[in-house]
Write a structure and sequence with these properties.
Rossmann fold; 11 helices; alpha/beta; 5 strands; five-stranded parallel β-sheet; 219 residues; Arc Repressor Mutant, subunit A; globular; single chain; 2 domains
């Protein structure tokens, strides 16, 4: 029985996604989360979840960083990005970072059903009106290399990187992850090597490159 995780901080939008999803796939199990921490916790408890519908701008997620976290920590889970941002270059970046599909929040219910069916069938999905423009949008060599470097991190190393980007010190990271400080230092050495950076500041910049503005919050 396929299992879907809907990740969005708006209850009404989650309800609409749930309704469309259960109409699209027979005997579908559905889970919900309203933050990136909630998504990661749910996937830790239920690693057999097949598909995540991920809002780019939910609490704890800043642009493509959440997508990168899922690809690094749970590479077997398919991710469809759900966003109010339908800029073809943003869509291209999401695909380059491992998204299996991209669903604008303006999409209709039929498109949502089609997206879920397609991705569960191991196909990539984009809405019809974006396919040509995304195909013309060039992949960034920097994004391609960044995605590969982030994917080379272990799940624990990615967690350490995220906490470094939040400004936590080694001891604070050790306490948060319930490990010894020397373990954190060993992770940092590996992180710096795999990302091709020299220090914590440069490592933090790597994650900040994945940040995107939220069209829904523009005035």
């Amino acid at each position: 029985m396929p299992c879907l995780l809907i990740a969005d901080d708006h209850p009404l939008f989650r309800a609409a996604l749930r309704s469309a999803a259960v109409d699209a796939v027979a005997a579908l199990e559905v889970r919900e989360a309203d933050s990136l921490d909630g998504v990661l916790a749910t996937l830790e408890r239920e690693p057999d979840i097949d598909l995540v519908l991920l809002d780019l701008h939910m609490p704890g997620n800043h642009g493509l960083a959440g997508l990168a976290a899922l690809r690094a920590q749970h590479p077997g889970v398919a991710v469809v990005v759900v966003s109010a941002n339908d800029d073809p270059q943003v869509v291209r970046r999401a695909l380059d970072h491992g998204a299996a599909g991209y669903l604008p929040k303006s999409a209709g219910l039929d498109e949502l059903r089609d997206a879920i069916r397609s991705v569960l069938a191991c196909e990539q999905w984009l809405p019809t009106n974006l396919r040509n423009s995304v195909a013309r949008a060039p992949s960034s060599i920097r994004d391609t290399h960044l995605a590969a470097r982030l994917a080379s991190l272990s799940p624990q190393q990615f967690r350490v990187l995220t906490l470094v980007a939040e400004g936590l010190l080694n001891k604070q990271i050790a306490d948060r992850l319930n490990v010894q400080e020397r373990t954190v230092k060993a992770h940092l050495t590996a992180i710096f090597d795999r990302l091709g950076v020299r220090n914590r500041t440069q490592a933090s910049v790597v994650l900040r490159e994945l940040e995107l503005s939220d069209p829904a919050r523009r005035l």
